[in-house]
Amino acid sequence: MTRKHLLAALALLIAVLAVFSVSAAETKTKGAYEYEVLDEDAMTARIVRYIVPRGERDNEAITVEIPAEIAGYAVTEIGDNAFINQQRLVRVVIPEGVVSIGIKAFSGCDGIADMELPESLVSIGNKAFSNCKQLRKITLPAGITDIGDNPFALCDNLAEIELAGESERYEVRDGMLISKPDSRLITYLHDSHGESFTVPEDIRVIGRIAFLECKELKELILPEGVETIEESAFKSCTALQEVKLPGSVTLIGNRCFAECVSLTEFTIPDSLLEVAGNPFVGCRNLETIRLSENHPTLMLEDGLLTDRRTMTLLCYPCIRKDTVFRVPEGIREIGTSAFESTGKREETEEPLQVILPETVTKIGEYAFSQCQIETMDIPESVTEIGKWAFESCYFLRSVKLPDSVTEIREITFSNCDMLSEIRLPEKLARVGDDAFAGCRRLESMEFPETLAEIGSGVFNNCEGLTKVTLPDSVTVMGSRIFDGCLALTEVRLPSGLETLPAGTFRFCRSLKEVQLPETVTAIADDAFSGCRELETLELPAKVARISNSAFEGCAKLKELVFPASLRSIGKYAFSGCESLKGAAIPNGVTTINSFAFQGCTGLQSVVIPESVVRMGEMIFYQCDLDLALWISKDSTAEEWCRENGFIESMRYMDGSLPEDRTEGD
What we know:
Elements: H1 3-23, E1 27-30, E2 33-39, E3 44-50, E4 62-65, E5 69-70, E6 73-78, E7 89-93, E8 100-101, E9 114-116, E10 123-124, E11 137-140, E12 146-147, E13 160-163, E14 170-173, E15 176-179, E16 184-188, E17 196-198, E18 205-206, E19 219-221, E20 228-229, E21 242-244, E22 251-253, E23 265-267, E24 274-276, E25 288-290, E26 298-301, E27 304-307, E28 312-315, E29 324-326, E30 333-334, E31 353-355, E32 362-363, E33 375-377, E34 384-385, E35 398-400, E36 407-408, E37 421-423, E38 430-431, E39 444-446, E40 453-454, E41 467-469, E42 476-477, E43 490-492, E44 499-500, E45 522-523, E46 536-538, E47 545-546, E48 559-561, E49 568-569, E50 582-584, E51 591-592, E52 605-607, E53 614-615, E54 628-631, H2 636-643, E55 650-652
Parallel strand pairs: 3-6, 4-7, 6-8, 7-9, 8-10, 10-12, 11-13, 16-18, 17-19, 18-20, 19-21, 20-22, 22-24, 23-25, 28-30, 29-31, 30-32, 32-34, 33-35, 35-37, 36-38, 38-40, 39-41, 40-42, 41-43, 44-45, 45-47, 46-48, 47-49, 49-51, 50-52, 51-53, 52-54, 54-55
Antiparallel strand pairs: 1-2, 2-3, 5-6, 14-15, 15-16, 26-27, 27-28
C-alpha cells in the first residue's frame, strides 16, 4: 500500500469513527437548545434542536442569537434540521466559532430575511436554507470549503449571493453559485435570466436540485461539455418546453426532469450511458421519447425505457392509461421511481393493476411511490424491496409480501391511506423507520417470531390500529413506534425490553392500560405523553429513570406506584396528570426536574425523601393550594420549599410542622 493510499484509508477510518461517536452522543438540553457534545477534550458541541420557549405567543416574531457557548462547551456546529420549519424566526445571528451548518438546518424558516454567517464557517449542508421565502440576500464567507446540494433551493425571493472575498473553491457568477474544482452549477437564482437560459460552456455538472421549481424557465440550452445532470436538477420547472441534451452528457439522475409538465418530447443521445432512475416522473404530457435502436445501454419498447445491460425497467410513462399492465418477461428489476406518480388521475378512471413476472428479483426505491394501484401481489422471486417503494399509494388496499423478503425498509408503505390487509413474510427480520406510518386503516399487526428489529415511527399516525403484538425475538426498538395511534387499546411488548423508547405511546388516546416487561429500567421522553385515557400503570421493579414528559397529559392517571429502584424524574414528567392524587417518591431518588408535576390539579400529597438532592424550578406549578409535601427536616426538599413559596405545604415525616407555618394548617 502506498503512502497516499494509507493516508486515505486512515482518513476514512477517522471519518467512520466520527460518525459512530456522533450517533452515540447523548442529547442534552440547556435553555432553548438541545445539544450534543462533540469532543470532551476540545470542549465542543453541536446544536441539535431549537425549542421555542413555552409561553411564547404563537404569532410572535422571534429573533435568535445562537450562543457561542453552551454549558461550558464551544458551539461549533448547527446540526441537521436544527431550526427546521421555525416559521416565526425573522432573524438569526450565528456566532463566530461555528464551522458547520447541517442539512436543512434552517429549511422552511419562512420569516428569515436577515442571516449573518460567521467568518469561521467552512461547511453548509444540503438544503440548509431551502424554502426561506423571505431571504433576499446572503453573503458567504471566503473560507467556505464545502457547500452541499443547493442550500438555497425554493428561496423564491433570493436575488443576490455574495462571497465575502476571493474563494479557492467557489464563485458567484451571473446569478449562479458554482463549484470551481468540479465545474458544478450548485444554485441558479430563479429570476436571474427569465424564460430562457444558456448554461455557461465551462459547466460540466448540473447539481442536484440546482433549478428546482424555476417555474418561469421555458427554454434551456445545454452546451457541449456538460457531462452530468444530477437528481432532481430541473424538477418542477413546469414551464420548461424544450431541452436538448448535448452529445457530451453521459449520466442523468433520478427525477432530473420530474414534473416538467410542459415537456412533450425528449431525445436521448447515444452518449447517455447511465440513467439513474426515472428522469421523467410526473411528466404527464411527455408523448415522445426518441432513442436510437442501436443505443449502447438503453432500449425503448412500447414506451418503456429499459437498461438493456441489467434489464432494469427505468420508466413507465405517465401518459399511458392502462388499467392492467404486465411487466414484460425478462425484466429483473423495477428501477428507482419507475412507476412513481402513475395510474389514474381522475376519480372516474380505473386504478392501475401491475402484474410482475417471476423474473423480477428487486423492486427499487420509490418504484411505485404515489402510484394509483389497489393491490400488489409480489412474486417469490423478489428478494429486495427498496425504501419508499410504495409510499403514498393512497388506493392500495392489500399487499402480499413473499417469504423471500426478510426486510421491510424505511417508509416502504408510509401513507398508504387505504391499506388494510398485508401478508407478512414468515422470516421477516427487520422493519425500518416509518414503514407503515400514516396507514390509517390498518387495524392489527402480528409479527413473526423471526423479527429482531423494529424502527422508529413504524406505526406513527396509524389512527385505526387497535392491536399489535411484538414478539420476544425483538431486541431493537426505535422511538415513536405507536405515536398518534388514536385507537390502540392492546399491545404486547417484547419480554427483554430494557428501555421504553421515546414517544412509544405518545397520543395513544384510547390506551387505558399496558403491561411493561419486568426488564424495563427506563421510561424515555414522551413515552406515554397525551395518553389521556390511561388510568393505571404498574412500573416494573427495575425502573430507575422516568424521563422528560413521560406521562405528560395523562389526564385520567389516578395512581402510580414508584419502584424502589427509581433515581430520577424528568422535566414535565407528570405535567397535566389532573387525576393523580398522590405520589410517594421512594428513597433513592436523587433528582426531580423542573415542572415535573405541573398542572396536577388533583394532587393532594407528595412524599419527597431525603435522598433528593436536586430539584428544578416550578415542580408543583398550578397544583392545588392545599397540596401537602412530606419532607425531612434540613433536607434539600425543605430548602426548596422555603425558596419557592411552599412553606404552607410542608409537613415533616415525623408528623410535626415547621415552626414558621400558620397554625391550624
